[in-house]
Design a protein that fits this description.
single chain, alpha/beta, five-stranded parallel β-sheet, 33% helix
């Protein structure tokens, strides 16, 4: 039985860290007596700071990933990496540390990434086959403080921003006219009032408070939307370039897919998509897949119990 476990998630995105949570929590359940450390980037690392299953959160500076991984391997007898960047698999092999560094092997186009991770590690004997959806731990005090920043009533929170222009849904203004108030937004891009700025844990706590009130979070395929689902808020994700069957949110969250039959979508080679590399849609001035996802369809999803 391993005594020191290291999980490496250095893919670079907040959403990638959230999708790796089933691995973290599955390893904690499988090896409850082991010290479990997670190595990742800021700002996402802060989301794990109060996680009772994580012994230590290690932070890697951008550009210093190999050095940070190398130092962490000194005290590790089992490593699991969701990341194949930065020469990490080669470094682990060179050091001879037991573990798994290829969780992207032979992926079916319709198998969710998080479930794929768990299935591979279960086949390796490192996880039980029981899948645990991503969950983030926040303190009661954080959630209570965040609740005070929300408007009275049962709010709908919009997350219009995205890391890439081809992931930005163009119908936020029309959606606002179809939703019952109060409607607020995280950042610019909609006519709705913006919530005051906060840090990442504060944002996660606001989403958790929205969930406790029975409210809804609506956002694109971006890290904060995944955070909302992982803290228990009712969440609707809007998917365009990425295939929802592979990158969508776990139920009970709802993943809406725009233009399901887009011929340019490459579920198993997403970084090779024309729209991904050039950050623009190859067939229309605005992302055709997201234009196809109508405000009425999103509002209908938001009204469903």
């Amino acid at each position: 039985m391993p005594e020191q476990i290291l999980v490496v998630e250095l893919s670079g995105g907040l959403g990638d860290l959230v999708m790796a949570l089933p691995v973290v929590h599955g390893l904690a359940a499988r090896f409850p007596r082991a010290a479990l450390r997670v190595l990742t980037h800021d700002p996402g690392a802060a989301l794990l700071d109060s996680d009772p299953t994580v012994t230590e959160v290690l932070r890697a500076a951008r550009g210093a990933e190999p050095e940070t991984v190398s130092a962490a391997l000194d005290d590790t007898d089992l490593v699991v990496s969701t990341t194949r960047l930065h020469g990490i698999p080669e470094l682990v092999a060179e050091r001879g540390t037991p573990g798994v560094t290829d969780l992207w092997r032979d992926p079916p186009p319709d198998e969710p990434v998080s479930r794929r991770y768990v299935r591979i590690l279960a086949a390796e004997g490192l996880l039980a086959r029981w899948y645990r959806p991503p969950r983030l731990h926040l303190t009661a005090a954080e959630i209570a403080a965040a609740d005070a920043a929300l408007p009275a009533g049962v709010p709908t929170v919009l997350v219009p921003g995205a890391g890439m222009s081809v992931k930005v849904w163009p119908h936020w203004a029309a959606l606002c006219g179809l939703l019952d108030p109060p409607v607020v937004a995280v950042g610019p891009g909609t006519p709705a009032p913006e919530l005051p700025p906060t840090d990442l844990r504060g944002l996660a706590a606001r989403f958790a408070a929205v969930g406790r009130r029975g409210g809804t979070v609506i956002g694109g395929d971006t890290g904060p939307t995944r955070v909302a689902a992982a803290v228990g808020a009712r969440t609707i994700g809007l998917f365009g370039p990425t295939l929802a069957e592979r990158y969508g949110l776990d139920t009970p969250a709802v993943s809406l897919q725009g233009l399901p039959g887009c011929p340019h979508r490459l579920p198993n080679a997403i970084t090779e998509q024309v729209c991904w590399g050039k950050a623009r849609c190859p067939v229309a001035p605005l992302p055709a897949c997201l234009v196809d996802l109508s405000p009425a369809a999103v509002a209908a999803a938001a009204r469903r119990p």
